[in-house]
Each structure stands twice: as structure tokens, then as C-alpha cells.
Specification:
Elements (H helix, E strand, L loop, with lengths): L1 E2 L1 H8 L3 H10 L10 E2 H9 L6 H23 L6 H21 L5 H12 L8
Antiparallel strand pairs: 1-2
Helix pairs in contact: 1-2, 2-3, 5-6
């Protein structure tokens, strides 16, 4: 629905000048028909805060898209359980440690230094 300032003020229970001032302050301009959307009026009256209808719809839309992406990736077999990935990495590091400790040409101190560097390895994005 489209609202004139007069009809919008009646619907939202405020004075015409208050609504007009809030629309101007929020930088919201009327459409070609000189009217505003319900979303425009809500945004102006709520001060564009957390209750902003457009931003909430955008956030919800993005969350739905993210959910569908994950669901589709899972259906395509592109995701692995975190436990399985952790176990594979632990196994890899166990084998690396054995190879490093069994390698010749390096002192034990050098080997321990390399192992300490590996022990401090962090996966990006995880703490």
C-alpha cells in the first residue's frame, strides 16, 4: 500500500508534521506518485533502528540463502562432519611428527623447534 503523509499520519497515529519531519530526517523521499510505502513510514518513525523493516527483511533473506547454500552443499556431499576433519588432521600431525623426529640431518633441538611451531598452528577463523 502507498501512503500520503496525511493518510500515513492517521494510520500510524501521529501528527502530519511529525511524520513529514521524520521522513525528511531519515532522507526518505516519496515515490513518483508523491506517496510512501509502509516500510518507508515505519523506517522513519522507528528512526531506522533495529526495528527497521527493510533491514530485517534483508537479514532474514540472507539467513535463508545461507541456510539453503549449506543444505545444498550437504546434499551434494561437499561437507564433512567437524569430528571427521579433526580426526584426519590429528592423524596427519601424528604422522608429520613421526617423520620429523625420524629425519636425519637435523639436531633434536631443531626438530623440537619445528614441532613446537606445528603445535601452535591454528585454523584460520577458529580460536
Amino acid at each position: 500500500m502507498r501512503w500520503s503523509i496525511y493518510k500515513g499520519a492517521i494510520e500510524f497515529g501521529c501528527d502530519k508534521s511529525t511524520l513529514a519531519n521524520k521522513l525528511t530526517a531519515a532522507g526518505i523521499n516519496p515515490g513518483d506518485d508523491g506517496c510512501y510505502t509502509t516500510c518507508d513510514l515505519h523506517s522513519a518513525l522507528s528512526g531506522g533502528s533495529v526495528g527497521d523493516l527493510r533491514s530485517e527483511r534483508k537479514r532474514e533473506s540472507k539467513a535463508r540463502a545461507d541456510y539453503l547454500e549449506l543444505k545444498n552443499a550437504k546434499l551434494r556431499g561437499e561437507l564433512l562432519p567437524a569430528v571427521q576433519v579433526k580426526e584426519a588432521l590429528e592423524d596427519l600431525f601424528r604422522h608429520l611428527r613421526a617423520e620429523i623426529m625420524g629425519a636425519s640431518g637435523h639436531t633434536n633441538d631443531e626438530k623440537r623447534s619445528l614441532l613446537n611451531q606445528l603445535a601452535g598452528f591454528k585454523i584460520p577463523g577458529k580460536s
